[in-house]
Amino acid sequence: MSLKSGHVDEIVEKCIDIFKKLPKNGKPIEKEWTVLSCVLQYDRITTTFEVVSLGTGSKCIGATKMSSAGDILNDSHAEVIARRGFLVYLYDNMMKALEKKESIFLFENNKFKLKDNVEFVFYSSQMPCGDAAIMRKEIDEECLGQVITSSKRQANTDISYSELDVKKHKLDNYDIYRTGAKCLPHSEQDTKSAGANYHLLGKVRTKPGRGDRTLSVSCSDKIARWIHVGVQGALLDMLLLKSICFSSLIFGGGVPYSEESIMRACLKRSLENSFVTSNNVPLFYQASVVFPHIKNDTNIRPAPGSIVWIKLDQMLTEVAVQGKKLGLTKKKQISPDNSLCISKYNLFKKFQQVLMKIEALEKNMEFMPVKTLTYSEAKQKSKRYLEQWEIVKDTFFKTWTIKPNIWNFVIK
């Protein structure tokens, strides 16, 4: 689906309108900024868009603060919050399909199939941190406040990689916007030279954090992963007939934007590691509509909280601070059930609820007994997803962050 400039701005306005209607908890106050990201559902029959998940935030926790119980969110960047909220929306629609209610899914042969008239669009108020954020400063003057549509071909046509060719290590004769995301400790590091040679291009990076270093890769890396292997992740992939990908990615106005940088980060990290498959190549756009809480000369401090909003029968809104749900007493924080709806624990719980809803589905995936299955064990059973991820990791990214295998919790 190719979007017209009017549709691009209309989509962004829908996202900002949802944000404005949310309670003030978690929103930026005076002199604070945040990032807004949303997933929108497009219906090809009615040609309408609706926001199905929303996230805000720009924070991560350090490696030492990760919880083996799966009850603390490691990464609270808006893009990640919106995507995890989208997973809740997908689980909710799976349950509806099993209960013969209106759903975006059909349940056939023990798998969930997305209806043909449904596709999804991703919006973020700024370029993702990491590789995509490294761009020429001159581009800023060209790309503020106008709709920039993708010159790339549709996904089902051949991609001319000559259009995407970039030098791997250096940008000469101009300055660049920089990212706070750092190269992985075991890989080649940024030169931090003056001007355009400060960063290396095409590198997997971890998000910045004060003091304790994070293990969360940059949003550029995560979005590229979603494009290559699907946004659904390992658990949901076992329930789906095929992976789910975004057809378009839209970035907000009033901020630096470069189609060359976003395509490099998502589709072609270097001359050697090109896009693995052309089946799921999205279109990229920049809107002219500006999110009012972007980082600028006035909004100088990042808001400490994150918001997740999900379109369910009863709209769900939660606020997170340091990966935990805001407003819980210390006693309630002890139980993982009281963690954020998008925590590892609660997403795994939803996965199990779908599995146990239909016996044939449970047996089909050899999850017996499902209640004794740990989170890590369940993910390791996602053979199709893991095989594709290994290919992508080896041929496209070349490396990835290594996290400790600590998530051996079960749902109580």
Topology:
Layout: H1 5-21, E1 32-33, E2 36-43, E3 48-56, E4 58-60, E5 75-77, H2 78-98, E6 105-108, E7 111-114, E8 118-124, E9 135-136, H3 138-142, E10 176-177, E11 182-183, E12 205-206, H4 219-229, H5 233-237, E13 246-251, H6 259-267, E14 283-286, E15 301-302, E16 305-310, E17 316-321, E18 324-325, H7 330-333, H8 344-357, H9 359-364, H10 375-380, H11 383-397
Parallel strand pairs: 1-15, 8-13, 13-14
Antiparallel strand pairs: 2-3, 2-8, 3-16, 4-5, 6-7, 9-10, 11-12, 16-17, 17-18
Helix pairs in contact: 2-8, 4-6, 4-11
Biggest sheet strand line-up = 14-13-8-2-3-16-17-18
Query: How many individual helices?
Result: 11
The number of domains: 1
What class, by secondary structure content?
alpha+beta
Organism: Diatraea saccharalis (sugarcane borer)
Catalytic activity: adenosine(37) in tRNA(Ala) + H2O + H(+) = inosine(37) in tRNA(Ala) + NH4(+)
GO molecular function, one term: metal ion binding
Pfam families: A_deamin
State the main characteristics.
alpha+beta; 412 residues; 11 helices
Descriptive notes:
The chain has helices at residues 5-21, 78-98, 138-142, 219-229, 233-237, 259-267, 330-333, 344-357, 359-364, 375-380, 383-397, and strands spanning 32-33, 36-43, 48-56, 58-60, 75-77, 105-108, 111-114, 118-124, 135-136, 176-177, 182-183, 205-206, 246-251, 283-286, 301-302, 305-310, 316-321, 324-325. It has one domain. The protein is globular, with a radius of gyration of 21 Å. A hairpin with a 4-residue loop joins strand 2 and strand 3 (48-56). Mean pLDDT is 88; it is low at 145-171. With 412 residues, the chain is an alpha+beta fold. Helix 2 (78-98) packs parallel to helix 8, helix 4 packs across helix 6 (259-267) and helix 4 (219-229) packs across helix 11 (383-397). The strands form 6 sheets. An 8-stranded mixed β-sheet has the order 14-13-8-2-3-16-17-18, sandwiched between helices. A two-stranded parallel ribbon has the order 1-15.
